[in-house]
Amino acid sequence: MTPTAPTMPATDPARVKVAIRNLYKIFGPDPQTALTLVREGMGKNELLDHHNHTLGLNDINVDIREGEITVIMGLSGSGKSTLIRHLNRLIEPTAGEVLLDGENVLTYGPADLRRLRQEKMSMVFQKFALLPHRTVLQNAGMSRRIRGEDQDTADREGGKWLDRVGLAGVEAQYPHQLSGGMQQRVGIARALASDSDIMLMDEAFSALDPLIRSDMQGLLLELQKDLHKTIVFITHDLDEALRLADHLVILKDGFVVQQGEPQHILLYPSDPYIEAFVGEINRARVLRVRSIMQRCPDVPPAFSGVVSPDATLEELIEMSGGNTECCYNVQQDGADLGILDMQHLVRALVPARPGEDKLAAQ
User: Is residue 352 very low, low, confident or very high in pLDDT (cuts 50, 70, 90)?
Assistant: First the structure.
């Protein structure tokens, strides 16, 4: 019998910032009747063909942990943008709950909903959504002005975050005078200036050229090291998802196919759809030593060197010169964490089939 993939650790309830529970969204004139059909097993295509309703979300259950980047990804029509818009109730669900710090935001009245959007959740859009008749500084501080704070406070906070995202000196310019990447930096500064706990980013980098997009990903990760925001990031790009995500949720036709730590999903796809999704990824560039290292044996072998658990397999291949006889000691802050031999690394570069733990099997 082929061993199965190791079980992912349970989520610590104390760290769950937003809990999505049994969330459904059906678009059409009679969503409640359609919901009954969906709960009885009717799929998206049949619901549309025979009942003229569109199944947007199908029983979504996701825990968004505090201080982490949760990436929700999928192809066009998978439901990812529909899902993120439920968090701040830009879209109302057909059924389910969205719990923020234990409170169901779907029960909020107008005043609480305004407070949610102004103080607790900021949003960065794909198309920047900057006001063209306002300066860069005015756009950056807009969230402060909307909640009623004075102009000096708005300018101070907006200017601080413009400087942080590398836009000091352009405060007096207007959005049309900036490049696409600079405009998106203004959008990020505006979201950060709101000082909200949660940032929602809906395809925030998708409209950017590849090099600028990579720079923006790096900027987000750099900021996150200091800020530890709870970020929900939507993308259709797997490379982007694997680079950014602490927790990855993959959608298809409105339901969650697989979710978990990105390295775990890459090594242990649970479904043929996921296997196809990750099949073309450059695994050496994405996989980390910590994901495939083995326990320290009682009698340690002769090591060829020391590596960090966060090093990529590509870096290790370069370090070894391609020598499959090498074996490395994995250390962090001087403590031994495990070992990684190059033969084990080579096996990890071959994609596993769903349900197969190829590394353990070999």
Answer: low
**pLDDT tier at 355, thresholds 50, 70, 90:** low
- Where do we find the tokens 């073309």? 280
* pLDDT above 70 coverage of the chain, percent: 93
Q: What is the CA radius of gyration of the chain?
A: 23
Q: What is d(CA 92, CA 88) in angstroms, rounded to the nearest whole number?
A: 9
> Whose structure tokens read 């019998």?
1
Q: 319 phi and psi, to 5 degrees?
A: -65, -40
DSSP 197: S
Q: What is the DSSP string of 285-310?
A: HH-BHHHH-BPPPSS----SEEE-TT
DSSP state of 177: G
pTM: 0.86
Nearby residues of 115 by Cβ (< 8 Å), 6 or more positions away: none
d(CA 161, CA 134): 17
Distance of CA 231 to the CA centre of its chain: 7
Q: How many CB atoms lie within 10 A of CB 168?
A: 11
Secondary structure class of 337 (helix, strand, coil): strand
Copy the structure tokens of residue 243: 């680079």
HSE of 239 in the Cβ direction (CA atoms, 13 Å)?
A: 12
Three-state DSSP class for residue 149: coil
> Are the C-beta atoms of 251 and 257 separated by less than 8 Å?
yes
Closest CA to 24 of 48, 46, 54: 54
